[in-house]
Write a structure and sequence with these properties.
Blueprint (H helix, E strand, L loop, with lengths): L3 E7 L8 H13 L2 E6 L4 H14 L6 E5 L17 E3 L9 H15 L2 E5 L6 H11 L3 E4 L2 H6 L3 E2 L1
């Protein structure tokens, strides 16, 4: 990972009306020099984030999209959807129990990214904890709040 790197974190049940704000946040980050985007593969927020980056890749050929893998690729076959440039299984995850795999992979990503795009409506959730950790680590956080997402406007914090 070189340069400016963005990781997406949000709830698996994120409503579709968040997508315009997410898409706008991706474009804004690209204009700020972010070219590497990482996203998980568990739920609607991850699917929307991937869709937004894939759409942006049509206009910005330098952009890359990588899928974060919380489980070892030998354990579960990895089939990358169209539009992804690759996958990443964080180093040191081999001995992490399955129930801790997603939070540990998320934490690793926060430690290795420069920007976070987040949709968190439940601060005590894993997504909320990831955003809190990102702020502690000094990451730039784009938070897609409920009221702003409905209007299609991200908040940059």
């Amino acid at each position: 990972m070189n340069g400016k790197v963005c990781f997406f974190i949000g709830h698996r049940d994120t409503p579709e009306h968040v997508y315009p704000a997410l898409e706008q946040a991706v474009e804004q980050l690209i204009t700020q020099g972010v070219t590497e985007f990482y996203v998980g593969n568990h739920g609607s927020f991850d699917r929307m984030a991937a869709r937004g980056v894939i759409a942006a890749k049509q206009r910005h050929l330098e952009v890359r999209l990588t899928m974060l893998l919380p489980y070892h690729p030998a354990e579960r076959e990895v089939v990358l959807p169209a539009g992804f440039d690759g996958s990443l299984y964080p180093p040191g995850m081999e001995n992490v129990p399955r129930r801790f795999a997603i939070p540990r992979a998320n934490r690793w990503m926060v430690e290795h990214c420069t920007h976070l795009v987040a949709y968190v409506t439940h601060p005590a959730s894993n997504a909320g904890k990831v955003v809190e950790w990102g702020r502690i680590q000094g990451k730039r956080v784009v938070e897609l709040g409920e009221s702003l997402a409905e209007e299609g406007l991200p908040i940059v914090g």
